[in-house]
Every structure is written in structure tokens, then in C-alpha cells.
């Protein structure tokens, strides 16, 4: 099969289309013919040399930790999944590929009306905010501050918090304020005076904060949220413990994706895809994510036919 991977860490240019043996589904596993794979900062860190916990060393290494596609092999001992089922799921590596093998519990059904590019970027985009909001106990009557609210994770966090009954204040560039209003958030611009603008938007105070920006945004959150246990940073991992704030624990599950998929099917949750690249342009997809700008997700797509169809 063909994958987008690298033989040594480095910048985006190390990503190449490589030919590698296709994996086979073992007991309790499914093999999925990938139609789309989301691209996110996690993958950039892998490409730069970070090895996620619990993953093997060695090269070539294939990034990608979320995908959507069609089941094409079912391992021994499995019921409930069949070849041809349209699914989406999570893994730590290997999603930038024509085929990926994962435990059956790592996938959930793709809603029939969901486009493949949206499905490819959906699992990770919903997983992180779903866990974070649960950890911070965000619910009715709360005011949640979301930094980088127009991004893929931030926009989903806004919507999930609104579904949970919370008021949401979202920071973003002014070009994205109408977008945030459409999601139900109160938009606030970045820059000098951020703390005062947030206080004006939330005169009753801020109960919890999800930091997807770091730097000054996190500093402002520390001033606004009384209980630091209700601050989660997605970017300032090295500083979190010293500041007494939290990072998102690894509590991934397909049940979280399935619940969000139901919200999508009901028209209560959307995911914006801002850029789509073919597999052989994975380097360009990484460059786009590295800009740190823009609404929604960046996604790689693969044609339906499987092997040999990627130019």
C-alpha cells in the first residue's frame, strides 16, 4: 500500500509517499480502507521527532491519528462489524495510509450523510473537547472561555458546551467573529486589553477555560478563573503542572465519537473543513496546519479505489 511517511524526522519536506506492506487484521481488529485522515498539531510533533507513548520506535514512521473509511477486513472473534461498513476512528499513528488496522473498539459508525472529508477530521476534533469539558464539569449555568475558538477543536468545544447548557466566550481574530456567533459563542478579539474585553463579555465571571492558544491567553485565564482545576491547556503542556492547571487526560473512546456523531446527525454539531489535500501533498497539509490560522480542520483524502490510485 501507499502511505505518507518519513524516514527521518524534520520539516514538512521529509514527508514522502512510500510503498510499504499492507497490514492484516488480527483477532479483535479491523482493517479500514482509508478515505480521509485528519491532520493536526499532534502529527506535526510526530514528524519533528516525538514518539507518542506506547508506540514503537523505528522508521519509516507514518503520522495520522484519526481517519474515516470502509471496513475491508474483520479479524477473528468479531461480530457487529462487516466489510463495507463505513466507519471513523482513532489511532496514534499510521492513518496517512491506504489501509489502517485498529482494535474494533477504536471505530464507530460514520453518519450516512457525513462527507468523507468531514468524517476524516471528526474523531480527534470531537474527542479532545469532549474529554476536556467532561473533566472541567462544564454544564448549565457555567460560562466557559475558549481560546482559539475558531479552530477545529475550539469550534467543536463551543458547540458541545452550548449543547451542555453553558454560555461560551470565544477568543479569535475579528475575521472569525461572525463564525463564532453562528456557533453560539460571544466573540472576543485577541491582543492588548484581552482580559478587560472578556470581563465585559462575561460580567458574571468565567467558570472554566479551555486554552488552545497558550501564552497571553493562558495568563489571562489564570486571572479570570478562580478554580485552576477548571482550566485545561491544550498547548502549554510543559507549564501546566507548575501553574496548577490541567492537560487533557488520555480518556479516548469510540463512545465519545459516537455521541458527537449523533449530535452531527441531529444537526446540532458541525465541523468545518478549511483545506483538503491528496495523500501526496501531506507536506503541504502540514504547512497549512503549522500556520496556526484558519477555521476548522485540514484533511488528507484518498480515492475510493485503494492501492495505486494516489497520483
- The CATH topology annotation of the largest domain reads as Quinone Oxidoreductase, Chain A, domain 1
**Radius of gyration from the alpha-carbon trace, in angstroms:** 19 Å
CATH superfamily of the largest domain: Medium-chain alcohol dehydrogenases, catalytic domain
So what's the CATH class of the largest domain? Alpha Beta
Low-pLDDT windows of residues = 307-311
Strand content: 15-25%
Features of the shown structure:
NADP; oxidoreductase; NADP-dependent oxidoreductase; single chain; globular; Quin_OxRdtase/zeta-crystal_CS; 2 domains; 5-stranded parallel β-sheet; alpha/beta; 9 helices; 29% helix; 14 strands; Rossmann fold; 311 residues
How would you characterize this protein structure?
Residues 10-300 form the Enoyl reductase (ER) domain. This is NADP-dependent oxidoreductase. The chain has 311 residues and is an alpha/beta fold. It has two domains: 2-124 and 252-301, Medium-chain alcohol dehydrogenases, catalytic domain (Quinone Oxidoreductase, Chain A, domain 1, Alpha-Beta Complex), CATH 3.90.180; 134-243, NAD(P)-binding Rossmann-like Domain (Rossmann fold, 3-Layer(aba) Sandwich). Helix content is 29%, strand content 24%. The chain has nine helices and 14 strands. Helix 2 crosses helix 3 and helix 2 (116-135) packs across helix 8.
Amino acid at each position: 500500500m501507499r502511505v505518507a511517511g518519513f524516514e527521518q524526522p524534520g520539516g514538512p519536506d521529509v514527508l514522502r509517499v512510500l510503498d510499504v506492506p499492507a497490514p492484516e487484521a488480527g483477532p479483535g481488529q479491523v482493517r479500514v480502507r482509508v478515505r480521509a485522515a485528519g491532520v493536526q498539531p499532534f502529527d506535526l510533533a510526530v514528524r519533528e521527532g516525538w514518539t507518542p507513548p506506547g508506540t514503537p520506535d523505528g522508521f519509516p514512521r507514518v503520522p495520522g491519528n484519526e481517519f474515516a473509511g470502509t471496513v475491508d477486513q474483520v479479524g477473528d472473534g468479531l461480530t457487529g462489524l462487516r466489510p463495507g461498513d463505513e466507519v471513523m476512528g482513532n489511532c496514534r499513528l499510521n492513518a496517512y495510509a491506504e489501509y489502517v488496522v485498529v482494535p474494533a473498539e477504536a471505530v464507530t459508525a460514520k453518519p450516512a450523510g457525513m462527507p468523507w472529508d468531514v468524517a476524516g477530521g471528526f474523531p480527534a476534533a470531537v474527542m479532545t473537547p469532549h474529554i476536556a469539558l467532561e473533566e472541567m464539569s462544564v454544564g448549565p449555568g457555567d460560562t466557559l472561555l475558549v481560546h482559539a475558538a475558531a479552530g477545529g477543536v475550539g469550534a467543536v468545544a463551543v458547540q458541545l458546551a452550548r449543547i451542555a447548557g453553558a454560555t461560551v466566550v470565544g477568543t479569535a481574530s475579528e475575521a472569525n467573529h461572525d463564525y463564532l456567533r453562528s456557533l453560539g459563542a460571544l466573540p472576543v478579539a485577541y491582543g492588548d486589553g484581552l482580559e478587560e474585553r472578556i470581563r465585559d463579555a462575561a460580567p458574571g465571571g468565567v467558570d472554566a477555560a479551555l486554552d488552545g492558544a497558550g501564552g497571553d491567553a493562558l495568563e489571562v485565564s489564570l486571572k479570570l478563573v478562580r478554580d485552576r482545576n477548571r482550566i485545561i491547556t491544550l498547548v502549554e503542556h510543559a507549564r501546566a503542572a507548575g501553574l496548577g492547571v490541567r492537560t487533557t487526560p488520555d480518556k479516548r473512546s469510540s463512545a465519545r465519537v459516537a455521541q458527537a456523531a449523533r449530535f452531527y446527525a441531529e444537526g446540532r454539531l458541525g465541523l468545518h473543513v478549511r483545506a483538503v489535500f491528496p495523500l501526496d501533498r501531506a507536506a503541504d497539509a502540514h504547512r497549512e496546519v503549522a500556520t496556526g490560522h484558519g477555521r476548522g480542520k485540514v484533511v488528507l483524502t484518498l480515492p475510493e479505489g485503494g492501492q495505486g490510485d494516489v497520483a
